């Protein structure tokens, strides 16, 4: 069964149609029967006191729908209907979880389509870190979709890290929706390295005073990969803060669109928002589009965005090669150093090493 | 942003199809610094004049590229626009 979503990663305010950045179309095949994704490790990772189920789960879903107002969104509706893996976490008031909850999903011959729908609901004053890890076997041509809803009540902190290391045949889409109350913070780290066609993004509402949202993403495009990104921070609360940082590399014939919007709504005095993008272009056939938006309906705010696009510095390459490194080793070192301060946030050493290995292998494979 | 009823939507698009480039882009949105206004008012300027001076200074790098008569006219227009619009 073919599924088509025509309005994915839409810009909140349209620009010229001929630039083809206003929205994207996502198409993939879905089998009539999708296996439920079973993972004893994932079940074990969520302790009994963290599980959100029953009537409480139903209440939370309604709260999210009311808060985020995205009923009718094609992707949200699809995920609620077709998800075959769920992680619903509820963190009680003032409870701090120091150890991260790590959930891994692997696409293989038995699980070619994995759609994980996750909820993290943090009560007042609580804190939790969740790491979502996606990978696939080399030969599987699958589809992976993820939707994660984050709801942080007053002074709560949610840290979400997503690591995507899928193969080059898999279609991947990932939507994060967040809602932060007074003093709450939502921190997201996304590492998007694999996949054939990737549609990723997040939409976070900073609903009350001093809420904050921080999103760091790294991506790597090789071969004919396409990476389509859309990040939106909506400021309603006074003194709310948002920070969106994106660092990536494009090689071979890869393509990428990066959309980031800071939306200052009327009344969000003293709010501040910043977007920062750095892109390295390693091949003459890459296509890069950047659309950093600032929408401002309030005068007493500070908004800033910056984009930096270019090649690897020849001086730096020369310096490293003159010290005995090959061109490939120098390139790998410079690219890893750019990404380092973002993927260092991964709270698992094995997954961190997998990320480094994946980057090196991706840069190595295209030349050999 | 000089008042609380205006709106600004900045929608830049950067489309790059060549690797041998070096592109930088930046945008900042905010209001006039309270400290800058205080400094000028403490030197005897009225609030309106202080804001008009700061806005003229903001436009100065562009204004100085214009022929003199146009730059003078532009500064005069800024002053006229700023009159009565503050607050």
Q: Helices and strands in order, then pairings?
A:
The complex is a heterodimer of chains A (368) and B (87).
Chain A: E1 2-8, E2 24-29, H1 40-45, H2 54-68, H3 74-82, E3 85-91, E4 101-107, E5 113-122, E6 127-136, E7 143-152, E8 157-165, E9 171-180, E10 185-192, E11 197-206, E12 212-221, E13 226-235, E14 241-250, E15 255-264, E16 272-281, E17 287-296, E18 302-310, H4 314-322, H5 327-343, H6 349-365
Parallel strand pairs in A: 3-5, 4-6, 5-7, 6-8, 7-9, 8-10, 9-11, 10-12, 11-13, 12-14, 13-15, 14-16, 15-17, 16-18
Antiparallel strand pairs in A: 1-2
Chain B: E1 8-10, E2 14-16, E3 22-29, H1 34-41, H2 47-63, H3 68-82
Task: Describe the overall structure.
The complex is a heterodimer of chains A (368) and B (87). Chain A has six helices and 18 strands. Chain A has helices spanning 40-45, 54-68, 74-82, 314-322, 327-343, 349-365; strands at residues 2-8, 24-29, 85-91, 101-107, 113-122, 127-136, 143-152, 157-165, 171-180, 185-192, 197-206, 212-221, 226-235, 241-250, 255-264, 272-281, 287-296, 302-310. Chain A has an eight-stranded parallel beta sheet with strand order 3-5-7-9-11-13-15-17, with helices on one face. In chain A, helix 5 runs antiparallel to helix 6. Chain B is α+β, with helices and mostly antiparallel strands. In chain B, 5% of the residues are buried. Chain A binds chain B through residues 11, 13, 15-16, 19, 21, 266, 281-284, 286-311, and chain B through 1-4, 6-31. Strand 17 of chain A pairs antiparallel with strand 1 of chain B, so a sheet runs across the interface.
């Amino acid at each position: 069964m073919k599924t088509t979503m025509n309005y994915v990663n839409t810009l909140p305010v349209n620009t010229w149609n001929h630039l083809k950045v206003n929205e994207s179309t996502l198409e993939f095949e879905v089998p009539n029967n999708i296996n439920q994704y079973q993972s004893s490790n994932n079940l074990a990772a969520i302790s009994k006191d963290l599980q959100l189920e029953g009537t409480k789960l139903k209440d939370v879903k309604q709260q999210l729908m009311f808060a985020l107002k995205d009923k009718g969104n094609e992707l949200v509706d699809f995920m609620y209907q077709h998800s075959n893996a769920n992680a619903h976490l509820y963190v009680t008031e003032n409870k701090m979880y120091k150890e991260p909850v790590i959930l891994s999903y692997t696409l293989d011959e038995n699980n070619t389509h994995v759609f994980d729908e996750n909820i993290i609901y943090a009560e007042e004053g609580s804190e939790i870190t969740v790491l979502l890890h996606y990978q696939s076997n080399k030969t599987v041509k699958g589809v992976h979709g993820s939707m994660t809803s984050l709801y942080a009540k007053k002074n709560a902190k949610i840290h979400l890290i997503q690591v995507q290391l899928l193969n080059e045949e898999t279609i991947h889409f990932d939507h994060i929706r967040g809602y932060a109350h007074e003093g709450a913070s939502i921190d997201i780290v996304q590492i998007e390295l694999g996949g054939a066609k990737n549609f990723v993004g997040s939409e976070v509402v900073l609903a009350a005073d001093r809420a904050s949202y921080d999103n760091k993403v790294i991506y790597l495009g090789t071969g004919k990969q396409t990476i389509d990104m859309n990040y939106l921070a909506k400021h309603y609360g006074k003194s709310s803060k948002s920070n969106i940082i994106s660092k990536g590399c494009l090689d071979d014939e890869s393509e990428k669109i990066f959309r980031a919007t800071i939306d200052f709504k009327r009344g969000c005095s003293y709010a501040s928002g910043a977007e920062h993008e750095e892109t390295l272009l390693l091949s003459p056939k890459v296509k890069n589009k950047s659309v950093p938006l600032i929408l401002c309906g309030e005068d007493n705010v500070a908004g800033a965005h910056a984009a930096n696009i270019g090649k690897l510095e020849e001086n730096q390459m020369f310096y490293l090669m003159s010290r005995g490194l090959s061109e490939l080793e120098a390139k790998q070192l410079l690219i890893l150093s750019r990404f380092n301060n973002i993927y260092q946030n991964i709270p698992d050493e094995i997954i961190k090493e997998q990320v480094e290995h994946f980057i090196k292998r991706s840069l190595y494979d295209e030349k050999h | 942003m000089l008042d609380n009823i205006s709106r600004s939507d900045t929608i830049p698009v950067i489309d790059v199809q060549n690797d041998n480039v070096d592109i930088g882009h930046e945008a900042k949105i905010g209001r006039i610094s309270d400290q800058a206004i205080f400094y000028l008012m403490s030197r005897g300027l009225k609030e309106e004049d202080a804001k008009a001076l700061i806005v003229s200074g903001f436009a100065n790098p562009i204004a100085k590229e214009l022929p003199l008569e146009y730059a003078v006219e532009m500064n005069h227009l800024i002053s006229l626009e700023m009159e009565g619009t503050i607050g």
